[in-house]
Write a structure and sequence with these properties.
- This protein has about 375 residues and is an alpha/beta fold.
- About 35% of the residues lie in helices and about 10% in strands.
- It has helices at about 25-35, 40-45, 55-75, 80-105, 125-145, 160-165, 215-220, 225-235, 265-275, 290-295, 310-320, 330-345, and strands at about 5-10, 115, 145-150, 165, 175-180, 195-200, 245-250, 280-285, 305, 325, 355-360, 380-385.
- β2 (about 115), α5 (about 125-145) and β3 form a beta-alpha-beta unit.
- GO terms for molecular function: galactoside 2-alpha-L-fucosyltransferase activity.
Length: about 375
């Protein structure tokens, strides 16, 4: 089965925090286990001769250098200064050409068999949606025995920036495959020729699309160590084993309440009442801090800390690092919580991961009511009435 890794330029786990630079046998074992794919990780981790100049290129450079050296030794008079400059220019031009060709050979993945991608990544939703699309691409590709990869637009989307992922897929024979249903179904990808690309389109918001590929996700969806450290330094309360984070999403939901449930303070207070044991801090991450201050914070019987960040990527890390998480009906906080299972050895069956989620995501009388389904949440998450 061919897999195309997401390119991670820096990959460090957030829970527990550990460096992405692994050494010794562990590093060699991970390189043997890692699937092949269209990212720079396989170059950095030593995929054959990737990352080294080929013998032919070295021979070419040596030849040009020797020829130019002979020419320079023969040109000694001031009269031939312009020829000296010309010789140096030729040498530099040749070096640039060789570097470009070598760089291309190192950054272009050779695929074996059909490739699955999501060519519109970043155009169909924000961070949470993008992570579903990336994960579904990997999961469906591995389930069908196909390779997977991404184009360089991955670098520019929120998920690519957060996890430092880079695409280097350069095959343009693309067959579009649209999601047929908004709820989970058994996807059968078409059979295509070698080196053809199947580009998914849709949201694929169900972990069952990629539940069998969580080890692959664990390899590539790793939060950068420096980002984790920065968040922990700004909000030291998140280091506590007795910290609880609440994600309060309002924003666009208040204008789309015929589709989405806008969670009120009662939901969050009910979730807090279900938490057994000690609570030291309640960290609130929200796009509407004023509402939280007026309607929620004063009702919480614990010390409340608001996220100081103005960037969603930092807020995502803050939610993920919290020991206990009360999520909103949002793919953003869903993924902040689900990454805990990706890190776990017991995956979605790890009951030690404490996540509280709304029992209903969509307005029961709205046009998206059919998408309310319990299977959307991992079995160990606590469903909280809204």
């Amino acid at each position: 089965m061919e897999a195309t890794p997401l390119t991670t330029a820096s990959a460090a786990s957030a829970e527990p925090v550990r460096s992405s630079e692994r050494v010794g046998e562990d590093a060699r074992d991970e390189r043997r286990r890692a699937p092949r794919g269209s990212t720079r990780r396989d170059r950095r981790n030593g995929d054959g001769d990737r990352g080294r100049v080929s013998p032919l290129a070295r021979a070419g450079i040596s030849f040009v250098v020797s020829r130019v050296g002979i020419l320079l030794r023969r040109i000694r008079s001031r009269h031939h200064k312009r020829y000296t400059e010309l010789a140096v220019a030729i040498l530099l031009l040749y070096a640039c050409v060789v570097f470009r060709r070598e760089h291309h050979s190192r950054t272009t993945k050779v695929f074996h068999g059909p490739v699955v991608t999501f060519s519109r990544i970043g155009q169909e939703g924000r961070l949470g949606n993008q992570l579903f699309q990336i994960a579904a691409t990997i999961g469906l590709a591995e389930a069908h025995g196909y390779s997977w990869g991404f184009y360089n637009n991955l670098d520019r989307c929120a998920a690519g920036r957060l996890f430092k992922l880079h695409g280097n897929l350069n095959i343009h024979r693309v067959i579009d495959f649209k999601e047929h249903h908004q709820v989970f179904y058994n996807v059968t990808l078409p059979k295509v020729r070698k080196n053809n690309v199947i580009s998914l389109s849709g949201y694929f918001q169900d972990y069952r699309y990629f539940n069998a590929s969580l080890n692959t996700l664990d390899t590539y969806l790793r939060l950068p160590h420096e980002l984790v450290s920065l968040v922990q330094s700004k909000v030291p309360e998140v280091r506590s084993k007795f910290s609880v984070a609440l994600h309060v999403r309002r924003g666009d939901y208040t204008k789309l309440n015929e589709l989405y449930n806008v969670l009120d303070s009662n939901y969050y207070l009910r979730a807090l009442s279900l938490i057994e044991g000690r609570i030291d801090h309640v960290i609130i991450v929200s796009d509407d801090v004023s509402w939280c201050e007026e309607n929620l914070a004063s009702k919480i019987a614990h010390r409340v800390v608001f996220s100081p960040f103005k960037d969603d990527l930092f807020d995502f890390v803050l939610l993920h690092l919290s020991e206990i998480l009360v999520i909103a009906n949002s793919s953003f906080s869903w993924w902040a919580a689900f990454l805990k299972h990706v890190r776990s050895t017991n995956k979605t069956n790890d009951a030690s991961i404490r996540v509280f989620a709304p029992a209903l995501w969509y307005n029961a009388s709205g046009s998206l009511a059919h998408m309310n389904r319990d299977s959307f949440l991992p079995p160990t998450w606590i469903r909280v009435a809204i």
